[in-house]
Amino acid sequence: MTSVIIQPVKSLEQIDAVLAIEEASFSNPWTREMYLAELENPGVSFCFLASDVEGRSIGFCSFWRVPDELHINNLAVIPERRRTGVGSALLGFVLQEGARLGAQRATLEVRRSNDAARFLYERFGFTVAGIRRGYYSRPVEDALVLWREDLTTPA
Q1: What is the pLDDT of residues 75-124, one digit of tens each?
Q2: What is residue 1's predicted lDDT score, i.e. its pLDDT?
Q3: Mind giving me the DSSP string for the chain?
Q4: Among residues 67, 82, 99, 94, which one has the least CA distance to residue 25?
Q5: Out of 22, 35, 121, 136, which one is annotated catalytic?
Q6: What is the pTM of this model?
Q7: Each residue's pLDDT tens digit, 30-84
């Protein structure tokens, strides 16, 4: 397992790191403008960057906290560090942070074909609650809507 340092995204340099990971991970990545807008919404929008002990950015997770829910928008790890525990470290951290902020439950969407991500989320107690038809583009694909209840209880 990789040693991971997780910190909140607050600088333009960190946004650049998030964008590089985003572009390496998603076929329809968020833009710089989208992340800059997220930074302007403190208390609701959160983004955390994972780095290795050498300071190299290796993953990130962004989420919204709305009243008592956590909505995970994006979680990604650079390709060469996938399946080394970085995604688990980020997800565990974000779920704890969400609970600390008052969220009772969490939700996210995942591509139907993304088995690796779905298995990660299921290990953390998420279950499929629905389907959003044609939710993703490039290519068009359904999203599975996952929920995790009771963030105060370990998965």
Answers
A1: 999 999 999 999 999 999 999 999 999 999 999 999 999 999 999 999 99
A2: 62
A3: ----EEEE--SHHHHHHHHHHHHHH-SSPPPHHHHHHHHTSTTTEEEEEEE-TT--EEEEEEEEEETTEEEEEEEEE-GGGTTTTHHHHHHHHHHHHHHHTT--EEEEEEETT-HHHHHHHHHTT-EEEEEEEEEETTTTEEEEEEEE--TTS--
A4: 82
A5: 121
A6: 0.94
A7: 999 999 999 999 999 999 999 999 999 999 999 999 989 999 999 999 999 999 9
**Catalytic residue from among 35, 109, 122, 141:** 109
Q: Which tokens is 2 given?
A: 């990789």
Establish whether 136 is a catalytic residue: no
121 is catalytic: yes
- Nearest one of 129, 114, 9, 123 to 61, comparing CA atoms: 9
